From TrEMBL:
This is Cytidine deaminase. Belongs to the cytidine and deoxycytidylate deaminase family. Keywords: Hydrolase, Metal-binding, Nucleotide biosynthesis, Zinc. InterPro entries: APOBEC/CMP_deaminase_Zn-bd (IPR016192), CMP_dCMP_dom (IPR002125), Cytidine_deaminase-like (IPR016193), dCMP_deaminase (IPR016473), dCMP_deaminase-rel (IPR015517), Deoxycytidylate_deaminase_dom (IPR035105).
Amino acid sequence: MEIAILSGKRSKDPNTRVGSCIVNEKNRIVGIGYNGLPNGLNDDEFPWGNTGDYLNTKYPFVCHAELNAILNSTSISLENCKIYTALFPCNECSKVIIQSGIREVIYLSDKHHDDDIFIASRMLLDRAGVNYRKLETTIDKMELSYNEENV
Ligand SMILES: Nc1nc(=O)n([C@H]2C[C@H](O)[C@@H](COP(=O)(O)O)O2)cc1CO
Ligand SMILES: [Zn+2]
């Protein structure tokens, strides 16, 4: 999950930076992603707002962290993999998760739990037999340092 969160730090979304990290059955990382525009699109030429006219928001344009982690995957097959993701996946990402063969979703936040999108998401995951659980941890924060004395 720390790798997922760290990846999310690269997102240009000013409001919500989500990261995801996929591991295989041996817990080896096989894909990482964060929410951002599709490849080659300029972050400065698209809106990043989240209110107002749909076309003036980020929503029609941004790729979610989970989608990017799957598409960036180094593995041909993601059968039986797990995805660690900072936010519970939306219904669109849940469809992609199911199709990819991922069998478990471990999330940090489920802050939109009662929105239709996430109700649909759970319906999809439940019916497909994809397990999901909130990460249980006592860790409050992670610290990184560029000070070479800390290596
Ligand atoms: N699971 C998710 N993975 C994601 O990558 N996202 C992204 C899409 C947007 O860029 C941002 C949500 O923006 P906002 O509605 O909190 O301002 O997080 C959102 C969710 C929640 O469905
Ligand atoms: Zn999504």
